[in-house]
Amino acid sequence: MGRLKKVVLIIIAAVGLGFGGMSAWFAQSVNGEEAARRFIAANPLDLSQIEAFSKYRSCMGHDFRAPNLSGEKEATPRSMKHYVMVKPEFHGTIDKVSAFAPFDGIISVVDDDLGGPGDQQVWLAPHSISPRQWHFVFFHINLKQGLEKGSRVKAGDLIGTANLRRGPDNVTGNFDIAVKFTRPLHRPAIDAPFNHATQDVLDEYSEYGVSANDLIISEKARDAVACQIDTNVDYGGPDVYFSRNTNAGDYIWLRN
């Protein structure tokens, strides 16, 4: 019996070491191919409904930072995502502004995003069993009926509509998008979403007078001019909120 117990313990230890080794392997730094991967194969938005975007690292909304692809968190508060600003006729709607799957994949996360059903954070990931994975993230989405975590989607499928019936007056004109990279033993990393769009998608934005570079404030430029914090705004979360007197350079307006 003692010998059997010893064999069992050896097997358990070997399995544990195997899983530990696999986790360490998959936890390695983001490699060059992953960092450059262009996985956004379809436009996630109907640009005829959109009038502007906040730039990556803007001072719009609240502090939104996480480790970058090098594993470092940038120095001062900034918004490392895009606010999508819709045309005035869509303000306050919940079923008009479309959100589309940007690639063939699955819905990897559905988070109530402090708002509950109808105001959800929805993550999509390409088809893959790898624990190292890119995700496209919509914030404040009214998920299409019948879809849930694990649902499979095709590039261009409607996955929901923007919830623009939010805020103190129950009316707003924006929602958010971001991309994240997940790997074991690390917080999700973030990067500029349009760094990962195919040329076909970028060509659609070009028709509206926008390039990927137009949508980014460099880290150096943001470090040189810090975002102004509004200490009077506190929604109870960990993030500081920015002054609403933002610089016009924080936005890019579409040519219609």
Description:
The chain has 256 residues and is of the alpha+beta class. The protein has a single domain (46-253), classed as Glucose Permease (Domain IIA). Helix content is 17%, strand content 23%. Strands 1, 2, 3, 4, 5, 6, 7, 8, 9, 10 and 11 form an eleven-stranded antiparallel beta sheet that branches. The longest helix has 25 residues, at 2-26. The chain is globular.
Structural class: alpha+beta
Topology order in helix (H) and strand (E) letters: HHEEEEEEEEEEHHE
Largest sheet: 11 strands, antiparallel
Euclidean distance between termini CA atoms: 79 Å
- Total discrete domains: 1
Which superfamily, in CATH terms, is the homologous superfamily?
Glucose Permease (Domain IIA)
Mean pLDDT: 89
Poorly predicted runs of 5 or more residues? 13-22
Top-tier CATH class: Mainly Beta
Globally, the shape reads: globular
Short précis:
The protein has 256 residues and is an alpha+beta fold.
Keywords:
256 residues; alpha+beta; Glucose Permease (Domain IIA); eleven-stranded antiparallel beta sheet; 4 helices; 11 strands; globular
Topology:
Elements: H1 2-26, H2 32-36, E1 50-54, E2 82-86, E3 98-100, E4 105-111, E5 120-126, E6 133-143, E7 152-153, E8 158-162, E9 174-182, E10 189-191, H3 199-206, H4 219-224, E11 251-253
Antiparallel strand pairs: 1-2, 1-11, 2-9, 3-8, 4-5, 4-7, 5-6, 6-8, 6-9, 9-10
